Amino acid sequence: MNNEYLLKNLRNVPDFPIPGIQFKDVSTLYKDSKSLRIIVNELYDIYKNKGITKVVGIESRGFVVGAALAYKLGAGFVMCRKPGKLPAETRKESYMKEYGKDTIEIHTDAINEKDVVLLHDDLLATGGSMLAALNLVKQFKPVKTYINFIIELTGEGLNGRAVFHDDTEITTLLRI
Ligand code: AMP
Asked: What is the pLDDT of residues 97-123, one digit of tens each?
């Protein structure tokens, strides 16, 4: 169920970064102590009994709640980053964006076959970036994967969920 308090505190920025995009600015949720607490506590309730051992945050807005949730779950936190940012050996996954190709990376020693992994990002639009992150995490052959977003965009013909064909469970706190 949508949390009215979170909805009220989420800033919408029209025409950012390009005309026509309604940008959901989670910085207004992150800066508000009550919103941040609601988000982390709600996610903790969803995932506390799933045996999560690693939370993977997607650069960069996925780092904020991802790390707080990992702490609360007693799990480790892993950064999924843009190319060239991680200093040690990495695994990579490339994917197509609207304009051209993009690549993401995770350290090769960040996840192992005993891990139960929760991937987290702030927002689901087309699902392209999270699908790439999921494919990357699956290279590590973890026991199980889960996916979470704070916000799921459901309008304008978007159906980001549909790109995830396997049995990975997806949760979102706000559907807009
Ligand atoms: P996608 O790969 O299309 O699901 O896009 C998701 C990523 O792009 C997330 O990391 C979001 O932070 C960002 N994003 C895409 N659309 C929006 C939007 N309307 N408002 C805020 N962030 C967005």
From this structure: 877 899 999 999 999 999 999 999 999
CA of 166 to the centre of ligand 1 (A): 21
Residue nearest to ligand 1 atom 15, measured at CA:
125
pTM (2 d.p.): 0.97
Listing from the earlier edge strand, what are the strands of the sheet with 169-175? 76-80, 54-58, 116-124, 144-152, 169-175
Can you tell me the distance from the alpha carbon of 119 to that of 54, in angstroms, rounded to the nearest whole number?
A: 8
Task: Quickly state the pLDDT bin for 156 (edges 50, 70, 90).
Answer: confident
Among 25, 81, 129, 153, the mutation site with the greatest number of ligand 1 atoms within 8 A of its Cβ is: 129
CATH 3.30.530.20 fits 51-175, yes or no: no
Q: Where are the domains of the chain?
A: 51-175
